[in-house]
Specification:
Elements lengths: L1 E6 L2 E4 L4 E9 L6 E7 L6 E6 L6 E3 L7 E6 L4 E6 L8 E9 L2 E2 L7 E6 L1
């Protein structure tokens, strides 16, 4: 089992940027594809981005393409989400998880709150 701790959220104005981090511990982090998800108030949790564990494959939700960048550092057991040109509709709690394609397969952490003001 992989334990996950998300950080880096905060309050930012529309058009601003944030970088989220997800620190993993437990079973071999580098063996898993990793993804970011988000859940806005009153909505279901949705896929944001995913990166494979070694071959560089990356996927993004259409709503964040061109604005968000996912990356990982296997030596640090950490996956990142660089978020640029933020919009109020990006406001949500952001979570990371191990993934199979774009579906989460592990336990959820506590997430990190991102709030974008207009």
């Amino acid at each position: 089992q992989v334990q996950l701790v998300e950080s880096g959220g905060g309050l930012v104005q529309a058009g601003g940027s944030l970088r989220l981090s997800c620190a993993a511990s437990g079973r071999t982090f580098s063996s898993y594809a990793m993804g970011w998800f988000r859940q806005a108030p009153g909505k279901e949790r949705e896929f944001v981005a995913a990166t494979s564990w070694s071959d560089g494959r990356i996927a993004y939700a259409d709503s964040v393409k061109g604005r968000f960048t996912i990356s990982r550092d296997n030596a640090k057991n950490t996956v990142y989400l660089q978020m640029n040109s933020l919009k109020p509709e990006d406001t949500a709690v952001y979570y990371c998880n191990a993934v199979l394609h774009t579906s989460p397969i592990g336990s959820w952490g506590q997430g990190t709150q991102v709030t974008v003001s207009s």
